[in-house]
Structure formats: C-alpha cells, structure tokens
Amino acid sequence: MTDQTLQTEFEFSLPQGYVDDEGTLHKEGRMRLATAADEITPLKEPRVQSNSSYLTIVLLARTVTELGSLDTVDEAVIQNLFVSDLEYLQAMYERVNNGGLNAVDTACPDCGEPFTVEVETGAHIDESAGPGQSGESEQVLPIDDAGATDADTQFRDISQVSDGETEHADAGNPAE
Description:
Region (Disordered): 125-176
Protein name: Phage tail assembly protein
Organism: Haloarcula saliterrae
Number of domains: 2
C-alpha cells in the first residue's frame, strides 16, 4: 500500500466569470475527475444525440461541483458561461482527466529546460510523485511576484498557455 493520495478535485478561476440573474460575478470553482458514467450516460440523452456539441455542456455540468456562491451548477449555468470560460473549462477537463494534473508543460525561455507548472498557481511541479498524486515526495517551488523561484530561475508567463498545443494559422483568407 502507498501513502500517496489521488487528487480528485481541482480548483479553478474562470477568466471572465459567470454572472447570475442578480448580477453577481462567480469566478472561483472546483471540478472533479470524471467517472465512466459521466462520459457514458449523456450519450443516451436526445439533446446530445441530435447535437454532439451539447455533450460538452452535459459533461461540465456533471463535473463542475462548485462555482462561486451558487447553490448548484447545472446545464443552464454552463450554457450561460462566456465562450472564453467554456473553453477554459474544456481544456481543464482534458488536462485533469487525461493527465491527472491541472498543469501544462513549458520550458525556460533562457535555457530551454522543460518543466511542468500548475495552471492556477504557476508553481513548478516535480513530477516524481506521479500524475495526479501528491505527497511528501512532491516538490512545488513557489514563484514570487517577479516570476522567479527560490533558485532565481525565470519562467515565462503561462497565463495565456492552453493545454500545450499550439495552433498555427496562415495570414489572409484561405479562400483567396
């Protein structure tokens, strides 16, 4: 038996935030790991069968457990998120369910050394503890306001980094 635990819930902060009917802004929340039922059950719903894009709404409504001071997070809430927040949660869902961490890979702009950082805090993660696990063997190096760790290593700003994939677009209209 091991002393390491599996992280099953992940905190997030939406880029824009959800505005409820009273005008209250909700940005901070939690997402849990998806289960097999979370991914299979929605496939039986007529809305998903007629429009596969609706699967995202159903999956996020099932796995986002908290959002600000809302009593519940349901499909209506997810449908009314700003597009940037929906995209943020989709990318987070992929990261935590496929990688076990809410983290992205990056590299030092000076030396090119690759490393992983936690998306919410920007903390450098030592992956020796294994994906999705935390414990005494996990080392997280805090980054100060200037972006340096205790070892004075500079890191690039990852606030705009998605899930590590980069898309390239050609300039101009492709139909021309």
